[in-house]
Task: inverse folding
């Protein structure tokens, strides 16, 4: 699985020619530093870009283009990796051989993406005001709605509290309070800066060649000529914890959400990265993991209790949904699992199961075009050259002692509990 | 072994029905690392009143199919089967829907072992009073989790409003009260009825050899020597054509109200290809009318009555058929009123021919894109198979659909007497 790489102005183009899929999967990663001043306006950019372009000023015209390309998928998401805010544009279009299309669908898709990204509809030296106002409202609803999903809300609040003094506290989609200050002109200014500052990586997985894609990108992406893309800086991963922070929020909920934030200080490029994967697997990412077995299966305290390793930030989070009155008991059992990891109380079975699961997950990447692109991009972003095969070899080599010594580097930072309003 | 070729989509299926009635389908995907297998029983939350052979009929507590799914993972030696899958590098899971329970794994190695583990654990129930009681706490937390989920609440509110008797309006997991009525004898009764091989389908997709897989399963099943079983009868009280109530409202803290409209169709008694064609035409109709490239969608969006959460779907089986349209909105009443007016207008004007052609293309493309995903193929194939439909014919029906079909469906489907609305909004403070 080797991507062919080329460069068109400030876009790095990565192509994996393969005929295993029925589609072309296209992903554009565009990253800029995650910062208070720009987080909201940057997040708003794709919302407005999707509304209209110079050639297709009306949203309906743009959407009809997608229908005409046999229902090409188009979407965007906004995420953070470490200290970087990413706008990711995705397209997914079927391979021409399955339909009688007059025009190449790959060409159509790249033309569409190029048009949306680089040829927006402009009026009075800015974006169309009606679109900016409507999309501000949509983004506001989006941010307001985080509270509807309590699992997501609790996870978000835990990170906010844990990373109170770091950019990572910010939601990648921005902050409500910034929205009133953004208008069609200021957003356009931000867009122009973003086009020059962002690092653009375009991935295509499908039945094509680098040469073909380069031609199409050259033709359809009108990138700035004076760009100075930022260099990615990995997140600071030497965060010490002096005392555990405890936060309780109260809302009208039926179930309590107990979330923990832990500092591991092992990043994606760290030599210990694979050991961290194994640590997280033993602790809580599988049904055989300590958290699931002890909190759910043995004590029936929760339906879900799991851990997640965020490698780009070097942290681990734990999440569970419990009865309010079981807070202390659940917390005690979770902390016991962390202590057991530190004491090296890890069975051969747990180690073996976790390795088998991780190895499987690595191999499965190869069956999904988006996962293939995502894996390669993470390497680019963290500036580390580590193939799937290398990861698999490293997984096999991890010992119980390695995991234990890493476990002793993990410090509980924040305990967050979302509970009901009644009784104090 | 039967070979079924679908050259247009470059797929070939292999099928075999064993002596004990188990149906096996294998879809080899050359070049794929992973194998995805589902072992499904045609048994879901709605099958709560049944008999088999000459047995007398029984009514069981709500949520029992889902409870059974949870309990299957525990093995006679007290071990959890997840541990075994993990050891063999497989990610395993299960889910219960209205009409089926599905056990599955995905793995890149030890495929034969994992497949045998899948079949064996589903065919080896182990329920004790103790392990059944212990599960109640876990499932109660699962039910509480859904009670806090506004999307789930608005969806179930709509079923409640649409259906008077049919168990589709019952929450798949049951209620905290109903699950406490479940005991091991009831679980065995349900298990013995619905987990007989003749009521099940095994689907294997991935980098596998079909003949080898079928041979392997055949040997496993022959060794178990499972006795044949009489026919399963499912009893459903007759569902009146009318809806139960026009409006259901629930209170839950949400940033914006959630509002869904549903149109209930009278029982159609359609099965097989007829049902499939019906579904395809109705899905086309809904996409033409409410899809994000429709003028109506855009106008709702411009009025800020809807946002990206707006969507629609259509569900149909032999016994029930209904559409769902809606999403988050600041003004549920205005949204309902605007959609009603639009439907009235469309009933008069009929469907736009250009838009029909465009959406037809889109649906064809979406279907082909779905075939990239082994998970989606296994899920969809099983869902259709249990309704006696062939998922691979969906493409044909999209291609054959005409403007006249869609216009006919338009007139049939939208009857305002059959409209119910479900709303979730924040309590007044």
Result:
């Amino acid at each position: 699985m080797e991507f062919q790489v080329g460069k068109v102005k400030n876009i790095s183009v990565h192509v994996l020619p393969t005929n295993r899929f029925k589609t072309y999967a296209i992903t554009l990663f565009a990253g800029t530093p995650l910062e208070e001043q720009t987080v909201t306006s940057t997040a708003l950019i794709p919302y407005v870009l999707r509304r209209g372009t110079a050639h297709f000023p009306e949203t309906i015209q743009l959407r009809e283009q997608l229908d005409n390309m046999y229902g090409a998928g188009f979407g965007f998401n906004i995420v953070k990796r470490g200290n970087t805010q990413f706008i990711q544009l995705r397209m997914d279009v079927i391979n021409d051989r399955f339909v009688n299309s007059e025009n190449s669908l790959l060409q159509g898709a790249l033309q569409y993406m190029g048009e949306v990204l680089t040829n927006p509809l402009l009026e009075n030296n800015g974006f169309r005001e009606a679109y900016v106002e409507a999309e501000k409202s949509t983004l506001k609803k989006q941010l307001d709605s985080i509270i509807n999903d309590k699992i997501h809300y609790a996870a978000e609040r835990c990170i906010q509290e844990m990373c109170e003094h770091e950019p990572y506290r910010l939601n990648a989609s921005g902050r409500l309070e910034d929205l009133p200050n953004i208008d069609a002109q200021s957003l356009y200014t931000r867009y122009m800066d973003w086009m020059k500052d962002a690092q653009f990586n375009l991935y295509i997985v499908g039945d094509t060649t680098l040469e073909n894609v380069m031609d199409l990108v050259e033709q359809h992406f009108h990138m700035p000529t004076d760009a100075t893309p930022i260099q990615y800086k990995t997140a600071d991963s030497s965060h010490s914890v002096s005392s555990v922070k405890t936060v309780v929020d109260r809302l009208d909920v039926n179930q309590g959400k107990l979330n923990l934030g832990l500092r591991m200080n092992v990043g994606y490029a760290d030599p210990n990265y694979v050991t961290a994967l194994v640590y997280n697997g033993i602790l809580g990412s599988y049904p055989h993991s300590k958290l699931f077995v002890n909190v759910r299966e043995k004590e029936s305290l929760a339906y879900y209790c799991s851990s997640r390793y965020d490698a780009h930030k070097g942290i681990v989070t734990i999440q569970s949904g419990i009865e309010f009155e079981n807070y202390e008991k659940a917390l005690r059992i979770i902390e016991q699992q962390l202590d057991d990891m530190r004491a090296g109380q890890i069975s051969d079975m747990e180690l073996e199961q976790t390795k088998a699961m991780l190895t499987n997950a690595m191999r499965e990447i190869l069956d999904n075009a988006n996962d293939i692109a995502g894996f390669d991009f993470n390497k680019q972003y963290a500036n580390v050259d580590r193939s799937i095969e290398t990861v698999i070899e490293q997984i096999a080599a991890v010992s119980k002692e390695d995991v234990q010594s890493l476990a002793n580097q993990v410090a509980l930072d924040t305990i967050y509990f979302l509970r009901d309003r009644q009784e104090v | 072994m039967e070979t079924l070729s679908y050259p247009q989509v470059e797929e070939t299926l292999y099928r075999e029905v064993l002596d004990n009635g188990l149906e096996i389908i294998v879809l080899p995907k050359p070049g794929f690392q992973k194998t995805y297998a589902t072992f499904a029983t045609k048994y879901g939350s709605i099958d709560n009143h049944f008999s088999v052979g000459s047995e007398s009929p029984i009514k069981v507590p709500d949520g029992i199919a889902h409870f059974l799914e949870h309990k299957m993972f525990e093995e006679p030696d007290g071990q959890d089967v997840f541990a075994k899958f993990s050891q063999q590098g497989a990610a395993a899971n299960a889910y219960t829907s209205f009409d089926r329970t599905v056990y599955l794994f995905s793995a890149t190695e030890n495929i034969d072992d994992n497949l045998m583990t899948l079949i064996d654990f589903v065919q080896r129930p182990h329920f004790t009073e103790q392990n059944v009681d212990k599960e109640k706490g876990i499932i109660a937390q699962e039910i509480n989790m859904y009670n806090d989920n506004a999307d789930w609440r608005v969806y179930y509110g709509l079923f409640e409003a649409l259906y008077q008797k049919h168990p589709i309006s019952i929450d798949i997991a049951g209620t905290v009260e109903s699950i406490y009525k479940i005991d091991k004898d009831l679980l065995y009764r349900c298990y013995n009825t619905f987990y007989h091989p003749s009521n099940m389908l095994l689907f294997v997709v991935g980098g596998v050899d079909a003949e080898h897989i079928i041979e392997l399963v055949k040997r496993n099943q022959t060794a178990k020597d499972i006795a044949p079983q009489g026919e399963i009868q499912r009893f459903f009280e007759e569902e009146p054509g009318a809806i139960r109530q026009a409006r259901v409202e629930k209170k839950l803290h949400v940033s914006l109200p959630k509002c869904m409209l549903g149109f209930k169709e009278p029982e159609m008694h359609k099965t097989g290809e007829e049902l499939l064609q019906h579904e395809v035409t109705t899905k086309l109709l809904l996409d033409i009318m409410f899809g994000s490239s429709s003028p109506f969608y855009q106008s709702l969006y411009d009025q800020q009555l809807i946002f990206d959460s707006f969507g629609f779907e259509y569900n149909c089986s032999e016994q029930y058929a209904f559409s769902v349209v809606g999403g988050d909105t600041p003004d549920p009443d205005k949204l309902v009123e605007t959609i009603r007016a639009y439907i009235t207008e469309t009933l008069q004007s009929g469907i736009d021919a250009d838009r029909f052609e465009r959406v037809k293309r889109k649906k064809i493309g979406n279907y082909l894109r779905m075939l990239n995903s082994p998970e989606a193929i296994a899920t969809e194939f099983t869902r259709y198979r249990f309704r006696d439909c062939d998922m691979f014919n969906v493409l044909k029906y999209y291609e054959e659909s005409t403007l006249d079909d869609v216009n006919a469906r338009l007139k049939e489907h939208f009857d305002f007497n059959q409209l119910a609305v479900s709303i979730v909004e924040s309590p007044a403070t």
